[in-house]
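Example record used in the benchmark description.
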Amino acid sequence: MSGKPNKILYPDANAPLVAKERKTPEEHAAHALHVVHKQTLTPAESDLVVRETVKWWTDHVNVGFLQYRKSVSEDGTSVEWNDVEPGSCLFRDTTGREYIDCLGGFGIYNVGHRHPAVLAALQAQLNKQALHSQELLDPLRSYCAHLMTQILPGNGKLSCSFFTNSGTESVEACLKMALLSTGRKHIISTVNAFHGKTLGSLSTTSKSLFRKPFLPLLNVTHAPFNDSAYMEKLFKASKFSGNEIACVILEPIQGEGGIFVATDEYLRTCRRLCDEYGACLVFDEVQSGMGRTGKWWGCDHAGVVPDLIAIGKAFGGGVQPAGACFGTPKVWEKYVEEPFIMTTTFGGNPLALAAAIATVNVILQEGLMRKAVERGEQMLSGLRKLKADFPDLIADVRGRGLMIGVEFTHNDIGVEFSKGIFARGVLVSGTLINALVVRIEPPLTITEKQVATVLARARETCTAVRAGLAKKPIASKL
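Model output (structure tokens):
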């Protein structure tokens, strides 16, 4: 391109954002792109972005979701804007206010926000090619698949890959592989499980609110979590009835169900039963994987190797949507016979896998699994002290590494805690299935000092919540 850059296609980031009527698609596109190019905002620009965001979210996205998000803000106008420092757990809103991220994008920011090494790999790949032709072989799919076999459970047993764009797609792939491999249709999931919301993965998710509008779904039985005896009875009954089990799908730590950790004995029993009855064992490590629990995978703590594993969230380094399904050569046999039975346009694209490869390298080079253990112990210890001091508010604290749940004695107390700690500059969130539990899942790069700050602000918040209850008790406290 010769001459001066087109100001519509390449906006000047230093030019002010102006509130004015825009009637054409060209005007709206230019304005939206100007927001993209903006790095900092004046107070007037911040106000404009907030107003436009709220209005168009209300008009075109989902006003119900917007009303729900007001639970963490006094006026419902907090709009996320940028990250403070690449690789950290800090971000800012449009006003410049700084927050410690203890939600971690529901587990995507294991290596922090915009880690420089992940960005560098992404930029390097973008400089030569973003997507691939779909016909020729793209090298990063091979390189990433080979790398992942080095860190997956089983020392190379999970050697076959199918790359996806998300954790939900990874679960879908695992389920399809299990059904294809076994020729069976019966799936065992667990009570309080969350495996996603596409139709296949939704079948294994347990919450009625999510499932009921879309019934009937796949043939799924939801068994009590951590109940080995019940699981054994299910297998015996299924064989007797002829409704034989294709697979058992489990989260080594139930995330949205409320941060419940599977016992070693339970995982080992499920492995034994699947072997005995010819079913596949599927582990959903979308949230518990990529070093979050202090090991690469949640199942590593029990030493149990699945037949299939679903990966997502942090796999893309917090900068790219990325996921994967890995399995054994035995499970892959029928897929190899018909390789076009499962395909994907964007799954395993060069940008996503450049980010994934860099993410694995960052976790290794920066010792983030060790940090997950150290900071997790610090956070758990501090939260348990808080539970001891506020037994009227906190019923339980549990988790592993930096995948932690704080269970409150009443839903409303959890909401008030989330609002209060957000007002003090810490972002947390409840779990989707268990309304009593607030999750603590910061980036693994969180520092000792930042954990101490979070704990101090959590204590201030509990003190304020207790004082508020004294003035206006909730119904369950009357």
